[in-house]
Design goal:
The chain is mainly β. It has 7 helices and 26 strands. Strand 21 and strand 22 form a beta hairpin. The two termini are 41 Å apart. The structure holds ligand MTE and molybdenum atom.
Length: 364
Amino acid sequence: MSDQASSKHANFIIRSQEPLNGGPPLPALAATAMTPNDLFFVRNHGSIPQIDPAVFRLEIGGMVQRPLTLALADLRGLPRASVAATLQCAGNRRDELSAVAPTPGELPWGAEAISSAVWEGVPLREILRAAGIDTGATHVAFTSSDDVERSGRHFGFGGSLPLAKALAPEVLLADTMNGAPLPAEHGFPLRVVAPGYIGARSVKWLQTITLQAEPSDNYFQAHAYKLFPTDITAQNVDWQGGMMLGEQSLTSVICDPATGAKLAAGPVLLRGYAYAGGERLVERVEVSADGGACWQQAELLGQPERWAWRLWQARIDVPPGRHTLAVRAWDSAAQTQPSEICQVWNFKGYMNNAWHRIAVEAVE
Ligand code: MTE
Ligand code: MO
């Protein structure tokens, strides 16, 4: 295992070494409400910067009354908060979309590009208040000190939040993850945590915060992480179009057993996660042993957390033979998930929240 991955668990599955991308085996994901740091999925577009905390400075500027330069010691003097929050990459479950039609050039994520942690740090709004927000500012843009390369151009990852979200109490500049200092690959010394939003808005190795009247023009806000209709392809895309992704949508996954599993016929224990996204809660999870014709309720585990997924389990009767098991969730807005993958297919392979199906064979 390379140096970059050295803080990760032996079971961590590496999808790409440079940049480092990977996640835990699905059964491990469904084993604990909060994901241990050494199993938490990693999504990088470039290098993992090594930042000296003594020389680290955070710059706050743009449409503010008082531009600020803050050292980590300055941040320690500000009020702190913690939030149990799930991060999910918009590309989670892309492999199911790629099986319908190609999603060229994108990482073939399974259902492991999601994890949960208790984050602690300074609410972003404390810093915005200290700087004073000018009228006309409607977006808060972030840049980072990593080195991303696209078509020969080098730049840092970036993105933005609408001002109203940036001022919400759950949005943190986090310096700890599950009680430990942020690991290098998760953004040490400081990252944004924007609960309810796609993972891309939780900018790691935070360097600058800029208040402005437009969303960030960074590649990862203005170009990537946009949702296009199913009839748009890499050939006919107009990058001005598409929807800049923000809030997550409702999803659920069977983590155990794995697709392709051979099981003993009879009652089978299914385990997995369900995540509502936005401010919504998971209200109900249902599983099916016949591809989605009949459904039965799963048991929701633990307590609801506004910004985190809900783990679930269900015992379902599987007769001998080949079957498609499926899961779907319902959220606190009474919404459920789309049934078919082809309804949500898009050429960038984002936001797959169709019913999750696995193929199993049960033997007597
Ligand atoms: N921040 C920087 N600086 N560089 C990145 O490549 N990836 C983003 C986000 N923040 C990224 C970043 C994406 S797309 C996701 S899904 C999350 O980080 C993943 O966070 P994690 O690696 O801590 O799981
Ligand atoms: Mo992502």
